[in-house]
Amino acid sequence: MSILAIIPARGGSKGVPGKNIKLLNGKPLLAYTSEIALQSQRLTEVIISTEDEQIIEVAKNLGIKVPFVRPMTLAQDNTPTIDVIIHALQWYENQNIFFDAVCLLQVTSPFRTVEFLDKAIENFIEQDTDSLVSVLKVPHEYNPHWTFEVNAAGNLKIATGEDQIISRRQELPTAYHRDGSIYITKTKVLLEEYSLYGKSTAFIESTPEFYANIDTLQDWEKAEKMIQNKLK
Q1: In sequence order, which residues have a C-beta less than 8 Å from that of residue 182 and are 6 or more positions away?
Q2: Alpha helices (H) along 136-216
Q3: Cβ atoms within 10 Å of 2's Cβ, excluding its own
Q4: Sign of the CA dihedral with 25 first, then 226, 45, and 16 last
Q5: How far apart, in whole angstroms, are the C-alpha atoms of residue 118 and residue 116?
Q6: Which element (helix H / strand E) includes 148?
Q7: Local structure of residue 5 (DSSP, 8 states)
Q8: Calpha distance 50→107 (Å, rounded)
Q9: Neighbours of 50 (CB within 10 A)
Q10: Which of 44, 60, 88, 124 has the smallest C-beta neighbourhood within 10 Å, fewest atoms?
Q11: By three-state DSSP, how is residue 49 classified?
């Protein structure tokens, strides 16, 4: 299976200014994702999609291909990620190059391992689903069967729509949330259904010790502490 890995990295970060190339423990944040992607035995092509000249320079120094400069219209705060992916696929199609699937690797999840990435791709291929995402278990206190929405009368209703709440923690079904580390989707689903997920989504469970999703300065500080603890 031919798989295009796309690392999206625009220059207009608000939560952590310049975060994609900001130094984390002495190397650009982008380096953590690019190094793992380039080591993977399962990815056909690894590229970055960015509009930013500084990011382009850093990416090239890291050995990441920069086949195009992303249009500014696709580098806004509200630009859907799927539009960035489709732009890359269409650029390659114009060069008569086609891929079976896309692996989205976000810079904000720097601590995935190459073994984890390759295992995710293997699972995706073996299960033959429309997509695969990496997930973490939801703590029981946030399980959807224990969370509430407000109904029309202004009262609480169970978010799952059940009439009676599950009283015992042991009876709660396991729930997961996306951790942002890996998304893999068939090209056909992306282009024809305009979806990252399609109708069937496999999953791979991440290790909590490697979880970081850097959107704020507090997240950045947490990531720095994770590295220091690992070095100790």
Answers
A1: 103, 104, 105, 109, 112, 116, 117, 120, 132, 133, 134, 204
A2: 187-193
A3: 12
A4: negative
A5: 6
A6: strand 148-150
A7: E
A8: 12
A9: 27
A10: 60
A11: strand
* 135-148 pLDDT, tens digit each: 999 999 999 999 99
pLDDT in tens, 51-80: 999 999 999 999 999 999 999 999 998 999
Spatial neighbors of 57 by CB under 8 A, at least 6 apart, are none
User: What pLDDT, in 10s, does the model give residues 114-135?
Assistant: 999 999 999 999 999 999 999 9
| Helical pair 53-61 and 29-39, crossing angle rounded to 10 deg | 40
Taking the CA atoms of 73, 77, 82 and 88 in sequence, report the sign of the dihedral they define: positive
CA distance 131 to 183: 7
pTM: 0.93
